[in-house]
Design a protein that fits this description.
Number of helices: 1
Largest sheet: 11 strands, parallel
Distance between the termini: 43 Å
Number of strands: 11
Shape: globular
Helix content: under 10%
Strand content: over 45%
Order of helices and strands: EHEEEEEEEEEE
Structural class: mainly beta
């Protein structure tokens, strides 16, 4: 999209410009890029359960946040390296909804709610943790460590991974590398792990 324009948004789309170089203000209405919010904590008070979007404009936050809203999208710009946080994003939505996170760079990510979660074009420098039952999909990006202790289907498609741990007898984990790689340790304690089209480096 055109991140320099100031096109009026509906109330289903909120903008955030925070961090060191953020230009937002929590006294703004959040409807456009030029009237964006400043803090993630305030933006979360506006994000509802109606398919709304929160768009993080260029700039790295340091905040950690838990997202409880149903059927929402948390989006960065088209270049994931310039939008996101060094903190942890936690998805804690219920079984009746889903959440999508797209075009972001994050410190860590945790899935702790039973709703479906989709990560698309995501870079996580630390750890992605899935601790509960349900569907989890990651498509395109890179992840430091993945720790699966929840049951259900987990799909990683086109993702560079450093370390991968699976420890739940009812977990089915599918890694379709699309010429990506796992460069560190693979630990399968319990569950099912299927690897396809991925390079594995062995010491």
């Amino acid at each position: 999209g055109d991140w320099s324009s100031d096109v009026c948004s509906s109330d289903l789309q909120w903008y955030l410009s925070g961090g060191v170089n953020g230009t937002g203000s929590d006294s703004n209405n959040g409807y456009t890029q030029n009237s964006a919010f400043l803090t993630l904590s305030y933006a979360l008070t506006k994000l509802g359960n109606t398919g709304e979007q929160l768009i993080l404009l260029p700039g790295q936050l340091t905040d950690s946040a838990t997202f409880n809203a149903l059927n929402v999208q948390i989006n960065g710009t088209t270049s994931r390296a310039i939008s996101g946080t060094t903190g942890t994003f936690t998805s804690s939505n219920s079984t009746s909804g889903s959440q999508t996170y797209r075009d972001l760079t994050l410190g860590n990510f945790t899935r702790s709610g039973l709703g479906s979660v989709y990560l698309d074009n995501i870079q996580v420098s630390g750890t992605v943790q899935d601790t509960v039952d349900g569907y989890f999909s990651v498509r395109s990006g890179s992840i430091g460590s993945i720790n699966i202790t929840g049951s259900g289907i987990k799909v990683f498609d086109g993702v560079d991974i450093t370390n991968l741990t699976v420890n739940n007898a009812s977990a089915s984990v599918y890694v379709n590398g699309q010429n990506k790689q796992i460069s560190g340790l693979i630990t399968l304690t319990n569950g099912t792990l299927a690897l396809d089209d991925i390079t594995i480096f062995c010491d």
